[in-house]
Amino acid sequence: MVKLEIDTFSGYKIYPSKGKLFVRGDGKIFRFSTSKTESLTHQRKNPRKIAWTQVFRRMHKKGITEEIAKKRARRTVKHQRGIVGADIATILARRGQTTEARESARKAAIDKAKAAKKAKEGTKEKKTAPRTTTSAPKVSKQQMKGGKGR
Amino acid sequence: MISLKGKLNIIDNTGALLAECVNVLKHKINHGWGTVGDEIVVVVQQARPISATALASSTAIKVRRGDVRRAVIVRTRKPVRRPDGRWVRFDDNAAVLLNNKHEMLGTRISGVVSADLRLKGWGKIVSLAPKVI
């Protein structure tokens, strides 16, 4: 099987015994399928701007809708996973909570905390009464830290 | 298609830069047109100045302007047909200087040479060339 070359300008296939091979002064090879592409290359035309070349078509995404449709089919499915500290049930429950439910839950927690605090203060007062309060001499933070002597 | 008055670049390290064709040596019939792989007689039109050390030594190659030498064509602007039907064309005409025994005068070649040289029996030049197309 003979290798099919591609035209350096247009991207067309070059069959055996067709076209020309041009070697530029710097050694770069150009393959031309027709004198049209040869002429345009010598005129220093940019194939990206010539509408019928493969380069142009690829750049402007012409006529490749089939390829894109095929690629779209592949999409990863996301799985919801639980993390350490919150298994999937709690995550879903939390997600499903309405704002009202959250508010009421919050309020209940606050009330609970306040009640707990009051109870704590009650027991604390009983405790601190017999004990003599020894207060440490008032020392500024800087002195405590051993601040720089001016 | 190199013939009388045709200018060629010399791409070896003999010191010659530009040469003008004077005669095309083909085996029996002198067509007048030389192509890749043909031996020609050239006159050196431009040459690099020869260094003092080279001037002193008797073995160094001294190619001066106005020298009449033999050369073999390695690149042509005129397309050459390959056996598989391809046409290959280079951007300039180039040659490599030879002595009377068909040996290269220089020791190195710079640039591209045509692969048609191999078919015409210039395997040594092909082996020295950095790139063969």
Notes on the protein architecture:
The complex is a heterodimer of chains A (150) and B (133). Chain A is 44% helix and 8% strand. In chain A, β3 and β4 form a beta hairpin. Chain B has a single domain, classed as Ribosomal protein L14/L23 (Ribosomal Protein L14), CATH 2.40.150. The two termini of chain B are 19 Å apart. Chain B has a five-stranded mixed β-barrel with strand order 1-2-3-4-7. Chain B has a two-stranded antiparallel ribbon with strand order 5-6. A two-stranded parallel ribbon of chain B has the order 8-9. Chain B contains three helices and nine strands. The longest helix of chain B has 6 residues. With 133 residues, chain B is mainly beta. The interface between A and B is medium-sized, with 13 and 15 residues.
Might you state the CATH topology name of the domain at 5-59 in chain A?
Ribosomal Protein L24e, Chain: T
Fraction of residues in H or I helices of chain B? 10-25%
| Global structural class of chain B | mainly beta
CATH superfamily of the domain at 5-59 in chain A: Ribosomal protein L24
Q: How much of the residues of chain A is beta strand, in percent?
A: 5-15%
